[in-house]
Design a protein that fits this description.
With 224 residues, the protein is of the alpha/beta class. It has a single domain, classed as 3-Layer(aba) Sandwich (Rossmann fold). It contains seven helices and eight strands, in the order H-E-H-E-H-E-E-H-E-E-H-H-H-E-E. Strand 1 (23-27), helix 2 (31-43) and strand 2 (47-51) form a beta-alpha-beta unit. It starts with 12 loop residues before the first helix and ends with a strand.
Length: 224
C-alpha cells in the first residue's frame, strides 16, 4: 500500500481496498477525460474502461493531458492505455477506440460509475439513459473558456434533461474554446465526485449544479 501512502489521511486503507474493486467508465479521453482517467489511475481505482473514437491532433496540445507532439494522429484511447500502464501497473485498463452507445451495454455492465467527458449534448443525454439502464450514477461536467459546471446524476434523476435542451447539439464551448486550466479543474471536481460515489459518500451535487467562473472566481451551486 506504499503507493497510496499519501492518500491515507483522506482515504482509509479499507476504502483504498474498496476502490481497487471498483470499475469506472470514462467516456472521452480528451480535455476532461484525460485528466479524470489519470487521477482515477493514481487513486487506485481497480478497473478503468475508456472510450474515444478520435485521434490526437495539433489543436489538442493546449489542454489535453496525454497530448504530445509525438502522438499526433494516434488513437487517444490507445495512447491513454499505454500511459496508464506506466502510471499504475496494478490496475486494469480497457480502452475502446470507438464511441460508446447503447449497443455497448455488455462492455460496461460491471461499471460502478460512468463519467461524462464528452462535448455533445446528445451524447450526454444518451449516457444518462445508459447509466439509468445500468442502475449506476453518472458524473457529468462541461467546460467553456473560463467557465465549467458539474453535477452528479443518480439513476432516474434525469438531471441532465433539466440542464440541456435536446434540440441543441453543442454548447457555448464552440465559441469560447478551452484553455489548459479549465478542464484540469473540472476534471478534478469530477474525480472527487467519482470517489464519493464509489465510497458511498453522499454528494452535495446530486440534484444540484456547480457552476464555476474562473475569471472572477465565482462558485455557485444551483438547485435543480
Amino acid at each position: 500500500m506504499e503507493r497510496y501512502l499519501r492518500n491515507q489521511s483522506t482515504i482509509s486503507i479499507e476504502n483504498q481496498k474498496l476502490l481497487k474493486q471498483k470499475t469506472v467508465v470514462v467516456v472521452g479521453c480528451g480535455g476532461l477525460g484525460g485528466h479524470v482517467i489519470e487521477q482515477c489511475a493514481r487513486l487506485g481505482i481497480g478497473r478503468i474502461i475508456c472510450y474515444d473514437s478520435d485521434v490526437f491532433d495539433t489543436s489538442n496540445l493546449n489542454r489535453q493531458r496525454f497530448s504530445t507532439e509525438d502522438v499526433i494522429g494516434k488513437s487517444k484511447a490507445e495512447i491513454v492505455k499505454e500511459e496508464l500502464n506506466r502510471i499504475n501497473s496494478e490496475i486494469e485498463v480497457i480502452s475502446y477506440s470507438k464511441r460508446l452507445d447503447l449497443d455497448c451495454m455488455d462492455e460496461v455492465k460491471d461499471a460502478h460509475c460512468i463519467v461524462d467527458a464528452v462535448d455533445r449534448i446528445s451524447t450526454r443525454l444518451m449516457l444518462q439513459q445508459l447509466a439509468k439502464q445500468l442502475n449506476v450514477p453518472l458524473v457529468s461536467a462541461s467546460i467553456a473558456g473560463w467557465y465549467g459546471q458539474c453535477t452528479v446524476v443518480y439513476p432516474h434523476d434525469d438531471t441532465l434533461s433539466k440542464i440541456y435542451p435536446s434540440d441543441v447539439e453543442q454548447g457555448i464551448e464552440t465559441e469560447l474554446g478551452n484553455p489548459s486550466f479549465t478542464p484540469a479543474l473540472l476534471a478534478a471536481i469530477e474525480t472527487a465526485e467519482v470517489t464519493k460515489v464509489l465510497l458511498n459518500i453522499p454528494s452535495d451535487l446530486r440534484h444540484q449544479l456547480l457552476v464555476v467562473n474562473l475569471l472572477h472566481h465565482e462558485y455557485t451551486v444551483i438547485r435543480l
